[in-house]
């Protein structure tokens, strides 16, 4: 198994709450993450792509191309955004780290060649992260 | 010169803009940091305290006490907050990293014993930071 | 597969030696880790929990709860301790990084819901680590 | 599953190009990595060894021995070298991170006891890495 | 004193040797850094700019502008280059970390407004670095 | 001002207490750092040496020589030791991070040429550190 990784970062605001829950329940479940005025993070994203090496180039995938895909599909979409208000992906989905990771995975899974396996790790803080590989 | 440092982190949302400027000028100066719906960061704060060693304890300052002061005065105040909307310190002050650093310095300078010199480094991202020592 | 991770640290002293071995054999196997007066480390622990996302909350597991479990079960038990002298888990078990990792895994495995898979990575120094998932 | 990891670093120069390709094709595929005068990196290598714990020592593998093997077989071979010109492994193999990782894996696989599984992660920069486990 | 920092990286090859010294003397002084085929590093550069805050913008200096200056003047000049062969700055200057730091400082000092004080820290590896402020 | 830095690490056990104080006072001042069976840390040491560049070599100080001095004078002395029991420097000195930093500074100050200025930063954990330059 050969995998390559590209690491990048984006900065976003978000809030964890459900409009169909009472204020009390939102506070009980989401605590200070339920600040109505939002808070934010520097998200660190590792995208891992698994596949065969291309004997002709010595690349599994050209990391310049992977970098451009991540920039266009993920960073340009989420960087310096409010995930709740600016991003349609989270119009009806709570932007927990878990859901952000799943959304990012799905976006990249759709644009990357089906011959690759894809997995991502998303760090929300230096102490909290999520891994997802679509299985 | 002997200095001790305590490092901590907080997560906040902010927006850079001046209400007395046109939208065009705000965009020209602040770019994507002028998203009206805010974005956010994991801020990393290093607080440095300079002074004489206490020969009795071997401490310059008890870092447990410094940690509590930083928690009470800075983290509880700014963590999981929207700096523009939730924090009176920035009601009339643009929350650039520079201004956040100065505000944090002034708060800590007021509560720490005058016998100490104080300086701080505030990292807004892994690539951007500010140092301030009140001079 | 969805996994979340919580990272934390603790500081402990330990010594690697077997009382049923000669001094020579202990030195040959454990080298300077067999200092009779102990040495110590800042241990960094990553706890990974794998499972299904809770569609209601958007959490796999509430990381605030996971953080509290790690604090209560691991940090309070091992932080600022001598693993050999203070911790019954190592009364008859050599506190190598491997054994510490297995002990931590077993403790967490017992308190975390059986619906989760658990794995841990324990860094003893910035250059040495252990991964264990109970298999 | 129990795995231990040893992390180390080496610094090397390299160039990505194929002598059987035109200059234009080399530039198109390898971009600035095709500088005829070479560029270089600080490579960070994580070697993971998987196996059973030795109940007698509490070690999976003695990390002092693993460190010596990595030093002798990998660091002494590649550190402060030009991978293209100084290292026979790359006489006919383009030293992409993928190929370097595979070469390192094969060297270590040959010298480590067959009872162990081996995998490596090689970071070429803080943003780019490769994982390989021989499968 | 208020200072802001921008961190960036570049990758380059280099060799330490003096053509007017014997091979023996070059080896004695520069050791394995005197590999005739070069080796390389991921250099990490911190540029610190000191000055007054602009009360109008809340910036000391617009970090987007500083980032562009560093990209144009330093990264585009040295990234993926052989410092000895490709860079006229080192035609007659040994590219030690000290000299690279001084060269970078001088370039930035010339393009940054004289009202600022400038200092840089250049990390050649995770264990070696140089600080220079022109004094 | 030109300064070079060499970073290194050592692992040690220690305990903070004064034998001339009551148990209650030791607990009040030193808290869990007063565990009679010791605890420990991975200490990270940055040694900064300031001086003039040697125009002949392009070095301020040969970092290979500085590395050897740090290894011989500091790492061999303190690594895998109990600072209280094994190290005469702390026979009558409480091994707080402040005192360890001062001791390390004094040792290095004595062996490094008087033409250099010396300063050190010692990290006891990723969140706590001390700076000392002898003034």
Explain what the structure shows.
The structure is a homohexamer of 135-residue chains. Chain A is α+β, with helices and mostly antiparallel strands and 135 residues long. The first copy, chain A, has a single domain (2-132), classed as Tetrahydropterin Synthase, Chain A. The first copy, chain A, has four helices and five strands, in the order E-H-E-H-E-H-H-E-E. In chain A, strands 3-1-2-4-5 form a five-stranded mixed beta sheet. In chain A, helix 2 crosses helix 4. The first copy, chain A, is elongated and about 60 Å long. At the D-E interface, strand 1, strand 2 and strand 3 of D face strand 1, strand 2 and strand 3 of E.
Our count of helices of chain A gives 4
Number of domain modules of chain A: 1
Name the helicity range of chain A.
25-40%
**CATH fold label of chain A:** Tetrahydropterin Synthase, Chain A
User: What is the subunit organization of this protein?
Assistant: homohexamer
- Low-confidence parts of chain A, pLDDT < 50 over ≥5 residues? none
Structural class of chain A: alpha+beta
Mean pLDDT of chain A: 97
Annotate the secondary structure layout.
The structure is a homohexamer of 135-residue chains.
Chain A: E1 2-14, H1 23-30, E2 39-51, H2 63-78, E3 81-82, H3 83-86, H4 97-111, E4 117-123, E5 128-132
Sum this structure up briefly.
The structure is a homohexamer of 135-residue chains. Chain A is an alpha+beta fold and 135 residues long.
